[in-house]
Amino acid sequence: MLIKKDKLNPILSPLKGSSFEEKCVLNPGVVYDDKSKTWFMVYRAAGMDKKHVIRFGLATSKDGRKWKRYSKNPVFYGDRFNPD
Known about the structure:
By secondary structure, the protein is mainly β. The protein is built from no helices and 4 strands.
């Protein structure tokens, strides 16, 4: 099977105005759930804070091309580097 870049590439970009992912969105991990027929993507993200804290976001897709962010907030970030 030949894998090609999608015309929608990048399929998820930094979100302007988002405190946790305005600077970068990278390193996605994607799995498909047969039961719900849904793709799940966990991705690293960083905002514009001075410490460049890395957080994790979650997005879902029914077709693997168009993604919807699960939340406006990260689903995980370490409390050791809590920017607050």
